[in-house]
Amino acid sequence: MDDDIAIRYAGVQKRLGRQQVLRGVDLEIRRGECLVVIGRSGGGKSVLLKHLIGLMKPDSGRIEVDGQDVVPLSEVELVPIRKKIGIVFQGGALFDSLTVEANLAFPLREERGTPAAEITDRVREALDAVGMLGHEKKMPGELSGGMRKRVAFARAIIRKPEVVLYDEPTTGLDPIMADSIDQLIVKMRERYGVTSIVVTHDMHSAYTIAHRIAMLHEGRIYTVDTPDHMRQSADPIIHKFVNGISADVTDL
Ligand SMILES: Nc1ncnc2c1ncn2[C@@H]1O[C@H](COP(=O)(O)OP(=O)(O)O)[C@@H](O)[C@H]1O
Ligand SMILES: [Mg+2]
Question: Which CATH number does the domain housing residue 159 bear?
Fold first, then answer.
């Protein structure tokens, strides 16, 4: 086991319906790094993330978290893996009938055994981290889109995960809001040392937050490189993608 690698995909293949979505994905994510995944809409980026937490099983290949292959694990065996991984999905997905506080407490209550006082403290700490202290009693419906996203972030980190997955965290946000979300992703990493995987369409965001950018193309990782190298790449497929991406956004 390579201690420097938090997550490893090796030869991961997945067919969904008639489509061979993943055709042998090989990808290593280093501990503490922020890896951004780019690629065409419908290309399998969300599918890739779902495999990591066992929401989908590959037809073949290995997916390791801290050196452990998660592919053969049962739902019960996946519980400790899922505890290590926080997720910010596209829509934010808060419970509309629960207050901000109750939304955040939910993952802790599910664990059971966490004393009420500790739950209160951790809710406050998580809200503080995303700049949302003081909004505990509000309902999600009373918050702006950007604020809801912040609460979703807070919920994703409340169990202090080692890894946080972000699926299109800035999609649908105005540039200023998108920027503040980017800053939050960087802060999460700096403050908690988490490993982050961010799927995005937004190249501006990718350049801002990424240590490395991986491009998923035709079911494989076509390339993984630094933001600078991606930006300057003479490879026609990369060049076209990183420069023409904004015209290709259909995944809202
Ligand atoms: N549960 C599913 N059942 C069947 N097809 C799916 C399922 N989830 C995703 N797909 C298909 O897999 C492909 C990749 O989807 P996805 O990973 O969501 O793409 P994206 O890169 O935009 O996130 C798409 O063609 C999508 O329609
Ligand atoms: Mg997606």
Answer: 3.40.50.300
